[in-house]
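[Discussion] Sanity-checking designs against the backbone

I'm trying to build intuition for which residues belong where. Below is a C-alpha cell string of 300 positions. I'd appreciate it if someone posts a full sequence so I can compare it with mine line by line.
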C-alpha cells in the first residue's frame, strides 16, 4: 500500500459554532502504516469560548482545562506543519473542513489548499451496517478499541478505517480508495450535504433496542433547516439510533420538530408553522431548537 499516505484529522468544539475548536488530533500514515501522532487542546477563539454542557458531556473538555492553552492562531502553524502537503482523512470530514474554514475566516487566515477524503462515505460504500458512527465502523472492522471523542483517538481510528478498507479492497493509492468520480459525485447533494432532503425510503429506521427511557425514544421527529453543529442527515441518523422515527413533513404522527431557525432569529419554516397549527388544534407536538435537541441527544 505504498500510495496509502495521508494525515487523519479530528476536531472537538466547545459549542455548536465551527470556529469554537477546543482540541485537534492528527495521525500521519505512510504506505499504509501509522508513523506519527499529535494532539493539542486549544482555547477557543475570542467570541466562541462558551462551553455548552452538551459538548462538554460529549468530549469532557472544559473551559478551565484550556484557559492557558494557545488558541487557533497558536495551533494553526504547528498543525499545518504536521499536515505538510498531505490529503486529510476524517470520519464525516466535512465537519473538519468547515472547522478549518470558519476558524481561519475568524482569524483572517487564508483558506489552505487541502484535499479531503471521508471515511464515513467510504464505510457506506463498502460495509452494510445499520449505523455508520465512528464506533460502529471500528467495531465492524474489528479495529482496536478507542476513546471516542478524544480527538487524538478519533483521528487514529479514522486512519485505521482507511487503512483497513484499503487492505480489504486491494487499493494501492488514495485515488483507488476514493476514485475521482466518487469525489466528484460527493460534491453533488448527498446525505451529508447541507440542504439535502432524503427520500422517504432512505430515512433511517428507529433503533428499537435503544434505551426506552431516553427522551427521544418513541418520538416522531421532523428536522427543519440546516443545523450548525452537524448535517441534517447525520442528525437524523443520531436521533434514529436513540429510538426516534424520522419523518420529512409535519404530519399527524409527528411529535417533535427540531428547528435550526429558532436560535438564528430567522422566520419560521413551513414545517414549524404547521407544527404550531397542529399544536393549536390539540396535537401533542413540540418545536425545539438545535441546542435543545443536542441536549436531548446527550442522554445515554
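Best answer:
Here's mine. Compare freely.
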Amino acid at each position: 500500500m505504498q500510495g496509502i499516505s495521508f494525515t487523519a484529522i479530528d476536531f472537538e468544539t466547545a459549542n455548536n459554532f465551527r470556529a469554537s475548536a477546543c482540541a485537534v488530533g492528527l495521525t500521519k500514515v505512510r504506505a499504509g502504516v501509522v508513523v506519527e501522532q499529535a494532539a493539542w487542546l486549544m482555547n477557543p477563539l475570542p467570541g466562541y469560548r462558551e462551553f455548552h454542557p452538551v459538548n462538554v458531556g460529549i468530549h469532557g473538555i472544559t473551559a478551565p482545562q484550556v484557559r492557558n492553552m494557545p488558541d487557533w492562531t497558536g495551533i494553526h502553524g504547528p498543525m499545518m506543519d504536521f499536515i505538510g502537503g498531505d490529503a486529510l482523512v476524517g470520519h464525516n470530514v466535512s465537519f473538519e473542513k468547515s472547522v478549518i474554514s470558519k476558524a481561519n475566516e475568524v482569524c483572517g487566515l487564508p483558506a489552505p489548499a487541502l484535499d479531503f477524503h471521508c471515511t464515513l462515505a467510504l464505510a457506506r460504500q463498502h460495509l452494510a451496517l445499520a449505523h455508520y458512527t465512528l464506533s460502529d465502523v471500528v467495531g465492524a472492522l474489528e479495529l482496536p478499541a478507542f476513546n471516542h471523542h478524544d480527538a487524538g483517538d478519533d483521528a487514529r481510528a479514522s486512519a485505521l478505517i482507511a487503512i483497513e478498507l484499503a487492505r480489504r479492497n486491494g487499493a494501492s493509492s488514495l485515488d483507488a480508495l476514493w476514485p475521482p468520480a466518487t469525489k466528484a459525485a460527493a460534491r453533488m447533494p448527498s446525505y451529508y450535504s447541507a440542504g439535502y432532503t432524503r427520500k422517504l425510503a432512505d430515512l433511517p429506521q428507529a433503533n428499537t433496542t435503544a434505551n426506552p427511557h431516553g427522551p427521544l425514544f418513541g418520538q416522531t421527529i421532523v428536522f427543519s433547516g440546516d443545523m450548525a453543529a452537524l448535517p441534517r442527515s447525520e442528525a437524523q441518523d443520531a436521533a434514529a439510533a436513540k429510538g426516534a422515527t424520522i419523518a420529512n413533513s409535519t404530519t399527524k404522527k409527528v411529535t417533535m420538530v427540531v428547528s435550526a431557525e429558532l436560535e438564528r432569529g430567522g422566520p419560521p419554516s413551513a414545517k414549524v408553522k404547521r407544527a404550531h397549527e397542529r399544536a393549536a388544534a390539540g396535537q401533542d407536538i413540540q418545536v425545539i431548537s438545535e441546542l435543545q435537541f443536542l441536549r436531548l441527544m446527550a442522554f445515554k
